From TrEMBL:
Top-level division of the source organism's lineage: Bacteria
UniProtKB keywords: Membrane, Transmembrane, Transmembrane helix
Protein name as it appears in the record: Glycosyltransferase RgtA/B/C/D-like domain-containing protein
Source organism of the structure: Bradyrhizobium ottawaense
Residue spans crossing the bilayer: 106-137, 149-171, 197-215, 222-246, 266-285, 297-319, 334-354, 361-379
Length: 521
């Protein structure tokens, strides 16, 4: 495609996507407030201030639990060394302005998606670019990414898209600088999340085999870069991560989860379309309608089959994080690699067949790609998955409920002080370690820096000592027996976050229970 029409189409795509983001998420961003899930990591380094100095951010980064564990014992419970600096940079730049955080993230989604769309459009044409955009943005894993600020996948999208651009540039143009830059980028990507290094090895292996089959040397070298960098990061992870082996589970559970949830993915059947098209392409090749080597056709078949293998792999590596496979990993942020892979593979299959086939094959390939694009729009009743909107609405309700409740607690306390009363403020939840309860302590402390926020150290817990220390770190104070005995006399405001309401005859209870309506992935 010529440069000027391509630029016009890319600009048109970016404009339409930006409009969709504003239309579907404008109200959500306008009413953005911190979430009790995830956002304590953003607010903690800031203290009770809207921003933090570079020194404060650096001090917080050095005190990250995983870094401290590694420094003190030589091992850590998690392996995300590249994630924390990226998050710290965003915290330094954006501070406590949650609306600005969401705007920055949606600009990231807009920019990375447009870049990928541009690559596919330039190489394979309009039908492939459209089917990529539909399968990528229409996947339901975005439901667990768009409305949130915490998922590591956000940083993975940034680094991963840049890595794809570098390798695409190398394979297509032979620019050696792109290949050399891909090496540190791949190392950074692998160190962002535990599952990224095995992903590099797997995708690198696919590129190696596909490049060998198709006779594309630059694809072989790109695959080698991913395999080697992935293996290096994976070896380091095994060496320093104390729990690296705990993710190994028997295959039967993930296999059950794969079968159980497969039909819930409205776009899962579209994985079969490229496979069926390639089966027809094999017949067309024998009839002389397709000028494609047997090796390249085999490489495309391997790529198409790898999508379903990736789906099963994601169920396996996320099994322990989805309550034994009860939650659908593909409908959560863990399914993002499938959205990316499914879209790229479909675009490559349709694009290569259109380029190497005669007029009939090219028309049929383009028509099938457009058909898949339309099928996504029908299945989702639009571009984005219905799960995305259900989850968006829930996050808005939950975050608004939490913000209103914290504000109400503040109002009640200040009114009591005007009457020369000094009630006790307590934050509670179903368990000492429950993340929304821990965040609630921090949120109350930020809202009322001069107020003591108590927590009950006797709440049920799997590790009471550790989570009591964490509660104290976030600004809480253990509720002492003498204060507990004076609740009736002093009065008490108890803020409780849980799936069920709490009751306490000695306290004015403010419940945050909208978490109960969270959509099931």
């Amino acid at each position: 495609m010529q440069k000027q029409p391509r630029r016009t189409l890319v600009l048109l795509f970016a404009t339409v996507l930006a409009g969709l983001f504003i239309l579907q998420f404008g109200t959500f961003i306008d009413r953005a407030t911190p979430a009790l899930i995830d956002d304590h990591d953003i607010l903690y380094p800031l203290g009770d201030q809207p921003t933090a100095t570079l020194h404060e951010i650096w001090t917080d980064l050095k005190n990250t639990d995983e870094y401290q564990e590694l420094a003190n014992s030589g091992s850590a419970t998690r392996f995300r060394p590249a994630f924390y600096p990226l998050k710290s940079i965003k915290t330094y730049l954006l501070g406590s302005n949650i609306r600005l955080w969401y705007i920055a993230n949606f600009l990231l989604y807009l920019g990375t998606t447009t870049l990928l769309f541009s690559l596919v459009l330039r190489t394979f044409g309009i039908p492939s670019a459209l089917v990529f955009a539909a399968l990528y943005l229409g996947h339901k894993s975005w439901a667990d990414i768009f409305p949130r600020l915490g998922p590591v996948e956000i940083e993975c999208i940034l680094v991963g898209t840049f890595l794809i651009w570098l390798l695409w540039r190398w394979i297509e143009t032979g620019r050696a600088s792109a290949l050399w830059l891909a090496i540190p980028t791949a190392l950074l990507f692998g160190a962002t999340k535990e599952a990224d290094s095995p992903m590099l090895i797997a995708i690198g292996g696919l590129l190696l085999v596909s490049g060998f089959l198709s006779g594309t040397k630059r694809m072989v070298s790109a695959g080698a870069v991913l395999v080697v960098t992935g293996a290096i990061v994976f070896a380091i992870m095994l060496r320093i991560t104390a729990t690296a082996g705990t993710g190994l589970v028997a295959p039967w559970g993930p296999l059950w989860s794969y079968r159980h949830h497969h039909n819930r993915d409205a776009l899962a059947w579209l994985v079969l379309v490229p496979i069926l098209v390639l089966a027809a392409a094999a017949i067309a090749r024998r009839s002389g309608w397709l000028k494609m080597s047997r090796g390249e056709l085999a490489a495309l078949v391997l790529a198409a089959l790898s999508v379903e293998v990736l789906r099963l792999t994601l169920y396996y590596i996320s099994f322990s994080m989805t309550y034994g496979g009860q939650n659908d990993a593909i409908g959560m942020r863990y399914g993002y690699p499938l959205a990316l892979m499914q879209g790229i593979v479909a675009a490559v299959v349709f694009g290569r067949l259109a380029k190497d086939g005669d007029r009939r094959v090219a028309l049929l390939s383009g028509a099938t790609a457009i058909g898949c694009f339309v099928a996504v729009l029908f299945a989702n009743h639009g571009l984005f998955s219905p799960n995305t909107f259900a989850t968006r609405d829930w996050w808005l309700r939950f975050n608004t409920d939490a913000d209103n409740t914290v504000s109400e607690a503040t109002r009640l306390l200040y009114e009591a002080r005007k009457e020369n009363r000094n009630p006790v403020l307590i934050a509670t939840g179903p368990a000492l370690e429950w993340e929304p309860k821990l965040s609630l302590i921090l949120f109350l402390r930020r809202k009322m820096p001069d107020m003591v926020v108590y927590f009950d150290p006797n709440e049920q817990s799997s590790n009471a000592l550790h989570y009591s220390k964490l509660s104290i770190k976030l600004g809480g104070t253990p509720l002492p027996p003498e204060t507990r005995a004076s609740l009736v006399e002093r009065g008490c405001i108890l803020v409780h976050v849980d799936e069920r309401e709490a009751a306490d005859p000695n306290c004015k209870v403010l419940n945050i229970t909208t978490i109960n309506g969270r959509p099931v992935p």
